[in-house]
Amino acid sequence: MAMMVETQLERYTLETELGQTNWATLYRARRKTDGAPVIVKIVAPLFTTDEFFVRRFKQITEQVAGLEHPNIVRSYPAESEGNLLYLVQDEAASPTLERIIAAEGPFSPRRAEFIVAQIAYALDYAHQTAVMHGDLSAQQVTLGPEDRVLITDFGLAQTLYGANLAKNAYAGGAPVTLAPERAYGQGPSRSADLYSLGILCYQMLAKEPPFSGPSSMVLHAQAYRQPRPLHRVNPGIPIAVSETVGRMISKGVELRYNTGAEFARALGVACQRQKSLHSYENLMPLSEREQRRSLNPKALVQLASAMVISLAVISLALWAGYELGLNQALAGFAGPNRSNGLAAPVVSPLQPSGSLADQLTQATSIPTPPQLRSSTTVIGTPTSETFAASLSDTLLPPRTPTRDRLLPARTPTPTLTPTTQAASRSAGASPPTPAPSIPTSQGLLIFHNPTGHDLVIDLTGPTNTSVVVPPYGNQEFSLESGPYQAIMHTPTGDFIPSRTIAFDIAPGQIIERDYYSDFDPREFEQQ
Questions:
Q1: Strand 510-514 vs strand 442-448: parallel, antiparallel, or unpaired?
Q2: CATH number of the domain within which 18 lies
Q3: 509 three-class SS
Q4: What φ, ψ does residue 487 adopt, rounded to 5°?
Q5: What is the pLDDT of residue 160?
Q6: Of 245, 234, 251, whose CA–CA distance to 202 is shortest?
Q7: DSSP state of 32
Q8: What is residue 255's DSSP assignment?
Q9: Is the dihedral angle over the CA atoms 52, 57, 58, 64 positive or is it negative?
Q10: If we measure between CA atoms, which residue out of 301, 296, 304, 362 comes closest to residue 333?
Q11: 110 and 83 in one domain?
């Protein structure tokens, strides 16, 4: 129930208390300069005692304030008055997605696709600036006229992880949309936000999330249980849509879509298909599969007719091939006699009189011509081609002699001599990599992340910035000249200890640092 409050701020008038979270109290307020309605979130005093949280809270809120997207609620940098630390956001007067699903759900695939596309593009825009939502749920999304989406509370989950109170379980996201890796204790990430988007799509199409109940049971299910296929919960959902959403809420990070836009495109294609993207027989009930396997009498008659026709065609082909091969064999035996003007008889195997052996004997019995009846004896030596032809299968076509076969022409491989290589380099074939350009009044810091974890780099000096560097990746910082202090830690504050290094940078100077720069073993022993 909303309550009236007496606490007032210098620039804002607090009107009504809307509720409390684990780390803040929410108020509906108005800006005194123009009377615009806003939401003020005053951080709990317990968190303001954590210096790490306060510093991270101010840096992240300043980074989120730079987000300008039609589907992201405008937020402003954190402010402080006395002992109060608070954040101001524009008010989204539209109802939350959770209320719309409860009143109008389940949504049609087309409507869900339209809403998912807006959320996906907003997430991709924020991820490009290293801002993760970390707590995306149906309560953080509002639907305005014509289903216009507005998302609130970007980046707030990033401020909690790494703080001492967050380690003591004071922080956490909505369990129904929390990714499995988040349930294991990891911090906000791009893949975790995309998993939450898949859960929201599932919830819109089924009117309920895949897991519900007490928080402990939901977190256990997110980590170890597989959700029911969407088309089993809502039979009106095409299997192709069910498969697309199922991939997005996979337990393995490598199985999900890489970006929100990729998921939105796949969902759009799936909504246009009425059948599955894959032919899975096990998705069909057993009784229906057995019924499809049984054949009716008409199908049996058609199958028998096809078999008879096939056997007739095969029999004719065998008969024609056999007779053609036998005629070629008889012609081959009678071949030498044609030069003497004698014709060898060709006997068909279908003649009833005589056996095949008698016919072959008659065909090979050649009378001696008168001109050869002398004392001269002619001895013929068969060639290799004739001998090979006599051993070949007469049912096959005659073989092409080996000497007549065409071999593919070989193209000589060009060899690049050292002289040619030098000439190609001198001709400018591979120009050298240009050095990075540095502004006149700035220096360049190149930071390397040699660890296997995401590193948050907090730079304090003439230029203040905070960036997440992926494992084994590099990050370049253009900094104003002067002394700097860099704090390096993981988003969760776990796995490896946080380190602090100091350095000076001059105009036009390029320096390189990494997590192990100025390493001192005693530093880790103290931690």
A1: parallel
A2: 3.30.200.20
A3: coil
A4: -105, 125
A5: 74
A6: 245
A7: T
A8: G
A9: positive
A10: 362
A11: no
